[in-house]
Amino acid sequence: MHKVVIADTSCLIVLQKLELLIVLKNLYTEVLITSAIAEEYSLPLPHWIEIKNPLSSVTKAFESSLDPGEASAIALAAEIPEAILILDGLQARRVAAQLSLNYTGTLGVLAKAKKKGLIESIKPILSKLRELNFRISSEVEEDILIHCNEK
Question: How much is the average pLDDT of 79-94?
Fold first, then answer.
């Protein structure tokens, strides 16, 4: 199990809207975000989310193709090899993969929460995500349901 997670803004927003932000605390020992992510999120943060900024200026290299939150999360993850990134944006995931960083998405976090018994069922959550206009391909939805033993 990864002890340190770096969450991007989209993950925080989606989990907050689902009233499931607490799953981050229950799945990971340390939940980090950067000040750029905190600014994008713009809501009060729970006390257990720590703001930590990357030490290097690598963030600037990513800002041409990523938003500031994604760029800063990737730069921070590059400095914390044991961390796992939570990224939903395709371009951000491509950059993370090119840098050989560990990453997942919000759906991966929800599937892990289901497997650990933190949420009862993934199916109603997927319905709520569609209502929130969170884009999920039918293939990904099918894979999640199979992975969570709900198909």
Answer: 93
